[in-house]
């Protein structure tokens, strides 16, 4: 397809911005191209210009509002979708048995999981989350192991080589992961590379892995990849999950539970 110039291009740029601003989540280049009946290469050039102007943000083939791919402080994220997170946490807790060993990544949804499993007996929890550590440390029924590593003030998570080497020493029955994005192509993702490496190690050391994510995370792709979607057995999300995303994940062999 040829690229319209002049006023035609200006109008297309305005339309791209409108589509991005009205979308609930970052959208793909291919979707924008389909909406505007132009080639994906045209959209890539347009969004590059718009990004330079500060009108949109781009990441891994997706286009979002400025700041749409920026990590929010954990205190701010804790106030988002609280009802859905509690339901997801309660569903995840059903997979945790007395006497088992569980790895928990950081995040507001996994913190809710920690609260939901706090009454389990003879439970061993390995985590890189300071928030989860503070939640479970007073519990005499839980053996708590913190990974060590460098603390990030945006997430209250420990990460880096020290964290990875500590987790590699354990064999876990179950890993429960919180994510910033979950997409068939992009996999399970987060914003920080060192954090992603730590979370990936938890998955590798576990016999089974479950992702917990509210529906706003589906179809999104963060900067740092944790693992493929095929590395997890189950995704627990809420009832508002997009049917298309659910169908893709189910076809890839992921058991999707909506609560």
Unreliable stretches (pLDDT < 50, length at least 5) are: none
Helix content: 25-40%
* Tally of domains: 2
CATH structural class of the largest domain:
Alpha Beta
Q: What's the shape?
A: elongated
First-residue to last-residue Cα separation: 44 Å
| Rounded radius of gyration (Å) | 20 Å
Overall residue-averaged pLDDT value:
90
**SSE topology string:** HEHHEEHHEHEHEEEHEEEHEEEHE
Query: Might you state the CATH topology name of the largest domain?
Result: Rossmann fold
Total number of beta strands: 15
Q: What does the main sheet amount to? A: 7 strands, parallel
In what order do the strands lie side by side in the largest sheet? 6-5-4-9-12-14-15
Overall structural class, as computed from helix and strand content, comes to alpha/beta
């Amino acid at each position: 397809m040829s690229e319209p110039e002049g006023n035609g291009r200006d109008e297309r740029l305005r339309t791209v911005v409108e589509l991005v601003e009205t979308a609930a989540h970052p959208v793909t280049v291919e979707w924008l191209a389909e909406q505007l009946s132009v080639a994906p290469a045209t959209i890539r050039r347009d969004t590059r210009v718009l990004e330079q102007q500060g009108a949109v943000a781009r990441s891994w083939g997706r286009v979002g509002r400025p700041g749409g791919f920026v990590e929010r402080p954990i205190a701010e994220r804790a106030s988002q979708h609280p009802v859905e997170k509690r339901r997801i946490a309660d569903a995840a807790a059903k997979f945790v048995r007395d006497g088992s060993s569980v790895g928990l990544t950081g995040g507001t949804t996994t913190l809710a999981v920690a609260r939901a499993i706090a009454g389990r007996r003879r439970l061993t929890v390995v985590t890189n989350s300071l928030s989860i550590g503070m939640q479970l440390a007073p519990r005499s029924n839980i053996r708590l192991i913190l990974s060590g590593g460098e603390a990030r003030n945006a997430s209250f998570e420990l990460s880096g080589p020290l964290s990875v080497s500590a987790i590699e020493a354990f064999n876990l029955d179950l890993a429960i992961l919180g994510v910033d994005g979950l997409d068939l192509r992009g996999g399970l993702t987060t914003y920080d590379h060192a954090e992603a490496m730590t979370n990936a190690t938890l998955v590798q050391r576990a016999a089974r892995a479950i992702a917990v994510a509210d529906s706003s995370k589906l179809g999104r792709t963060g900067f740092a990849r944790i693992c493929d979607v095929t590395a997890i057995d189950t995704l627990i999300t809420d009832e508002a999950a997009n049917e298309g995303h659910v169908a893709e994940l189910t076809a890839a062999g992921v058991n999707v539970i909506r609560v």
